[in-house]
Specification:
The protein is mostly helical. The chain has 2 domains: 74 residues, no CATH class; 247 residues, Hypothetical protein af1432 (Orthogonal Bundle). Helices cover 53% and strands 8% of the residues. A hairpin with a 2-residue loop joins strand 3 and strand 4. Helix 2 packs antiparallel against helix 3 and helix 4 packs across helix 7. The structure holds fe (ii) ion (2 copies).
């Protein structure tokens, strides 16, 4: 494992260091675990377990230019569990700002979801995806949460951060349109999070190809909803509705979508279709500049309104205008 995969092996040692977000602690909070920084090829103990975090620590981290801490864990599962509990605890605290909650939710989930998207068939994958969706549902109950997620849209663009946003926007939109059952919202969140998982079965040369795809390549890309559906068919812990969303997220109400060009699509697939396009337009890619949320919505209304459910699109615009 390399730094990118968040775990590092010490030289000749058995212990492993895992990445932990830098903004996990604030003034006067007790640090419950030894925190290390990585400097010139070595891990340096920066804060000892049991000591309070201070404003001086914030200044020190800034001066040092630290972007992440490292913490020793026995296994990736122990690392995920620590982050999950830390995040849950933070999301429940009323005195923590919605901005900080969004930032920590993003920082904690990003490396976990990176694994979900790079190895969707691994055993722990769906457990991690479920963990994110549960935390995300909790966070989206907060006033101002959607705005904070939209602000983070440009932080780090790739397949799994796109998925993280699409899941958050979809949860918010469905709730606004009246969805109440936790089970339904959870299935929607999972479908939205995993909507592009089928791209993991497509050659990176096609997905990352600069310039236009030829007809054959485009045909392969258009099959990613089916590939995703097939991957999830092997995973009984993923609700049926989530699989249907994965299959239908590019279907459109006017029948001009793919892979089947059907009009009879699930309500939640329509929700995810809107969230997906909005996030794609507001993210910077290697080949295009991001649109502002206002311009993206204007573009969707002007050019794509026939593709989307009218009420849902209106609800989405209202929700983002608040
Ligand atoms: Fe897609
Ligand atoms: Fe997508």
């Amino acid at each position: 494992m390399g730094v990118e995969n968040s775990a590092l092996q010490t030289e000749g040692g058995k212990e492993e260091y895992y990445k932990v977000p830098i903004d996990l602690y604030r003034d006067s909070e007790i640090v419950e675990i030894d925190l290390y920084l990585y400097y010139q090829g070595q891990y340096i103990l920066c804060k000892t377990k049991g000591v309070k975090w201070s404003l001086e620590d914030d200044a020190r981290m800034k001066n040092f230019g630290a972007v992440t801490f490292f913490v020793k864990f026995k296994s990736p599962a122990e690392h995920s569990q620590f982050l999950d509990e830390k995040l849950k605890n933070l999301l429940e605290r009323p005195n923590v700002s919605v901005e900080r909650k969004a930032s920590v939710l993003f920082d904690v989930s990003e490396p976990i979801l990176s694994k979900v998207y790079s190895s969707p068939k691994a055993a722990e994958t769906m457990k991690n995806a479920q963990g994110y969706v549960k935390n995300c549902i909790k966070f989206m109950n907060e006033k101002g949460s959607l705005g904070e997620m939209v602000k983070l849209a440009n932080r780090n663009l790739n397949e799994h951060t796109h998925a993280l946003h699409v899941s958050a926007y979809s949860i918010a939109l469905a709730k606004r349109m009246g969805a109440q059952s936790y089970e339904d919202i959870f299935a929607l969140g999972m479908g939205a999070l995993l909507h592009d998982i089928g791209k993991s079965d497509i050659d990176a040369k096609i997905l990352k190809k600069p310039g236009e795809l030829d007809d054959n390549e485009w045909m392969v890309v258009r099959r990613h909803p089916e590939f995703g559906y097939n991957i999830l068919e092997q995973r009984p812990e993923v609700p049926k509705v989530s699989r249907r969303i994965v299959m239908e997220h590019h279907e459109r109400v006017n029948g001009r979508g793919y892979p089947k060009g059907i009009k009879n699509i699930h309500h939640f697939s329509k929700v995810v279709g809107i969230a997906d396009v909005f996030n794609a337009l507001t993210c910077e890619t290697e080949y295009s500049k991001p649109m502002s949320p206002y311009d993206a919505l204007k573009f969707m209304v002007t050019h794509l309104s026939l593709e989307f459910d009218k009420n849902l699109l209106a609800g989405f615009i209202e929700m983002l205008s608040e």
